[in-house]
From TrEMBL:
NCBIfam families: gcp_kae1 (TIGR00329), T6A_TsaD_YgjD (TIGR03723). It is found in: Cytoplasm. The gene is tsaD. It is an enzyme of class 2 (transferase). This is tRNA N6-adenosine threonylcarbamoyltransferase. It comes from Nocardioides zhouii.
Amino acid sequence: MTDGPLVLGIETSCDETGVGIVRGHTLLADTVASSVEEHARFGGVVPEVASRAHLEAMVPTIERAVETAGISLHDIDAVAVTSGPGLAGALLVGVASAKALALGLGKPIYGVNHLAAHVAVDQLEHGPLPEPCLAMLVSGGHSSLLEVHDVTVGVEPMGATIDDAAGEAFDKVARLLGLPFPGGPHIDRVARSGNSVAIDFPRGLSNRRDLERHRFDFSFSGLKTAVARWVEAQQRAGITIDVADVAASFQESVCDVLTRKAVDAASSRGIEDILIGGGVAANSRLRAMAEERASAAGIRVRVPRPGLCTDNGAMVAALGAELVARGRTPSLLDLPADSSQPITTVVA
Ligand code: KG4
Ligand code: ZN
């Protein structure tokens, strides 16, 4: 039993209704209800469907989390909630629920940044964050490299995608290959039996000229188009596509660029720890390649377990607990949901 503030966190920025409860760095409950299956036939998250699903799932998910943690709601020290970035309607459900809870219980509320929460969650698994660290956040909605000194104060963006997010590329290429949504885990699985050097797909923003302007930025839309063209050409020629080879070669390109730029970014600032978060951090090839390249550069890598990498409430509670522990000022009760909350704003 460790001490620290007891915080309940709510996450509704996309299609997962997550409620987490932590005490300091100890995870007590992480309950997630996902509407992913309702979106599968559309090949992407439908905002209105997600909002309604959050509304239905919210109360039961809170109840399950409280029961799992074996606490009484009255014992919590604060409520934390993702205030942005994310889908406006989906965020609203979480923010409104958190306000009701905070008001009803007479506890402070922290409206927190979703990306900072992806960073803070690692404390639940590996203890205090190394300060500074280089965070690489790769998910369906974002791909960024961030320099983090104190996650409760702010993070400095070093680079980001200029078009598609890494997870979005996985999802789109999976769709092209006839794999289900969300595609990342399926490409990961299928790629294991494929040849990663079968097709030489392009590495976005990696030639010398691009590196001058976009050293730490990513671009995945050209890669997605290259995969689409390759598949079309094979089909036109009447050749059956080896899905495993395409998946493995595509995945190799994404992981190659992500890990190369992350290690370069860390080295350029003399940072010795890289933390990877977001849904794509669950990718097995990304984890292996990051380990290998970072260790060659004398850099340590931390990746939370897959369940903590995808969206969940525990990450919001983890950041909330750190904010309380460091005495940061809570949000006002009229805090808005901000679909484009900047990464530099940790608490709204
Ligand atoms: O962080 P997350 O749950 O939600 C967002 O904030 O977007 O990330 C979901 C994304 C999806 O694009 C999904 O395909 C991708 O993470 N993903 C993966 C893997 N598991 C999830 N991508 C590659 N390999 C995986 N194993
Ligand atoms: Zn996320």
